[in-house]
Amino acid sequence: MKTSKSRTGFFSFPYVVWMILFVVVPLLIMAYYGFTDQNGNFTWSNILSMAEPIHRKALWTSVRLSVVCTLICILLALPLAAVIRSLHIKSSGFVIFIFILPMWMNFLLRTYAWLSILEKNGILNQILSFLHLPTQSILYTPYAVVLGMVYNYLPFMILPLYSVMVKIDQSVIEAAQDLGSSKLNLVRRVILPLSMPGINTGIIAVFVPSVSTFVISRMLGGGTNDLIGDLIEAQFLGASYNPHLGSAMALVLMVIVLFMMSLFNQFGSEEEGAMI
User: Fold this and answer.
1) DSSP letter at 22?
2) CB within 8 A of 120, min separation 6: which ones?
3) Which residues make beta-bridge pairs with 36?
4) What is the model's pLDDT at position 42?
């Protein structure tokens, strides 16, 4: 027993060192900068600056668009994962591969592609003009930002959902149907409760990167829809270099993300218990 424990500790040691060096230490550095001023003196001013209108607006916009993105991903991923689950094992593997394939391309290239699709003379408006339909000005609007988020993060919702749904025993679904369950009740009372672990994982995988993104909002939002990620980037890489303020923003964002995750998990647990 002692030998087994010592082996486990030996193999986990590199992981512990990695976590300390690249997770704990950066967080401590960020906390130090967030609670100090240019002279290294302790201050709350960096944290309290989040109450300023420009910061508050960017934070609210980030959370709002990220929640919308997450909800859209759930609505799209649920039927898609269910359809993929119903396919033959070889066919479902191919469909999953099709969803993953765009992720092999660079994130910037994928976002640039939407520029050529949504711009004034882009592919979308060319198709609408060909069909004699009115053209749309979607680029540089919040709709374009949400569209870019959904496109980039939808696979992160589909994959955990599919991995959970594929493990649902078909006999459970057949038993519910034999007992006279309608399709709506089958989804609400059987499939959704059993899929909640995948939904919770997908929410975390989509909400966390979308609330902190800055590339999508800069490229598809045109700088008119600044998110909190854009402001944080500006503090470290922009002309107004201020790592103390940027670290404080990142700390506040991290706290909000953790709070939102706890709400999502609590909601998921209550829904799972109520449905069962």
Assistant:
1) I
2) 135, 137, 139
3) 42
4) 92
Beta strands in 39-186 (DSSP E): none
| Integer CA distances (angstroms), 129 to 113, 121, 136, 139, 140, in order | 20, 10, 10, 17, 20
Please count the other Cβ atoms lying within 10 Å of the Cβ belonging to residue 93.
12
Residue 260 pLDDT exceeds 90: no
- Contact at 8 Å (CB) between 43 and 36? yes
Give the per-residue pLDDT at 190.
Answer: 84
Report the share of the chain in percent with pLDDT over 70: 90
Tell me the H-state helices in the chain: 2-19, 25-34, 45-48, 53-86, 89-100, 107-118, 123-130, 142-165, 170-178, 183-186, 192-211, 215-220, 228-237, 243-275
Closest CA to 62 of 187, 210, 269, 164: 210
Residue 252's SS3 state is helix
Q: List the beta bridge partners of residue 42.
A: 36
Pair of tokens at residue 262: 């706890």
Residue type, 91: S
